[in-house]
Amino acid sequence: MKRSNTVRFAAIAAAGVLALTACDNAAQEGSGDGADGGDESSELRVGLAYDVGGRGDRSFNDSAYRGLEQAMNELGVDAQEFEPADGEAESAKAERLATMAEEGYDVVIAVGFAYNEAVLATAEQYPDVHFAIVDSEIADIDNVTSLVFAEEQASFLAGAAAALSTEEDHVGFIGGVETPLIHKFQAGYEAGVAHVDDSITVEVDYLSQPPDFSGFSDPARGRELAQAQYDRGADVIYHAAGASGNGVLEAAVDNDFLFIGVDSDQYENAEDAQKPFVLTSAIKQVDVAVFELIQAAVDGDVAAGIERFDLSGGGVDYTTSNEELISPIQTELDEIKQQIIDGEIEVPTEP
């Protein structure tokens, strides 16, 4: 088996740190106090509600936390984390956001498209609170900012990396929940594979179907599907499955195939024994988006509407942490990346 970003994004991302604070899952609430952090101090109160899987997924939620933690450390904001409960009712999301608003949080950040209806139901009831949602587009509400990403562009690069690394001409994709958002990951990945070699077979599996969102928090099932794809011949597997991706990585180690992570650099947060199996990660800078939103709120100029983060601005990318695996194919990947930025390659958003 074979083994640019913009300055602003790179600088902010590099400033993030990974020290963790405790979460009180029973109360669906965690705490952080920015009073002692950084050179600045702010009276701004920020509440952040995690997506399915919560903090500790090594992926999407952890990236949001890094942005929150940076704001605590550098801006001195008072922040609280709110964890979802396994199998909670849909109404719990709106209740969680309303609780934050009632308790006096100035900014409420909902991490994940699953909060779309909850934000719609809550934001207009609390016009003095600024709401933000990651991965869902909500327009025309004066106190809501949508932070959305070109996931398909990073996934295209992940697909190209898989195609350049497979020895079996057979790769896989595992999605957490089959939704339009995760279809963007699938579409970009399949297109990236085909761009390199359209004869390569791509396995596709999803862990769950809406309204069941457990597919983002089921590592055992992720491991099972990855094992099945490997048994069918896949030797590189990309996941867009949140915490379930930890099971995909376990299967990669057990079976000696390559793993492609998502949202965060999963080479950096993998265990030492797992790192050799992480080819790359298709990242999106949720941490940067969260930090910049809070910074704007501190400065008093946070804007409503839709903010888009793509490859040209460093909002999405692929990682090069595993130099041994990436170096042989990096020149070709960077050429493809530039072609996407220049508009020479149009990346699909639907499979």
TrEMBL record:
* Signal sequence bounds: 1-26
Give the UniProt subcellular location, in the record's own words: Cell membrane
InterPro entries on file: BMP_lipoprotein, Peripla_BP_I, PnrA-like
Top-level taxon: Bacteria
In terms of CDD domains, this protein maps to:
PBP1_PrnA-like
Keywords linked to the UniProt accession: Cell membrane, Lipoprotein, Membrane, Signal
What topology in the membrane does the UniProt record assign?
A: Lipid-anchor
Q: Which Pfam families match?
A: Bmp (PF02608)
Protein name according to UniProt? BMP family ABC transporter substrate-binding protein
The record, for PANTHER family, names: ABC TRANSPORTER GUANOSINE-BINDING PROTEIN NUPN, TRANSCRIPTIONAL ACTIVATOR PROTEIN MED
UniProt entry tagged with the keyword Lipoprotein: yes
Q: Where is the ABC transporter substrate-binding protein PnrA-like domain?
A: 50-349
Q: Which family does it belong to?
A: Belongs to the BMP lipoprotein family.
Matches recorded under SUPFAM superfamilies? Periplasmic binding protein-like I
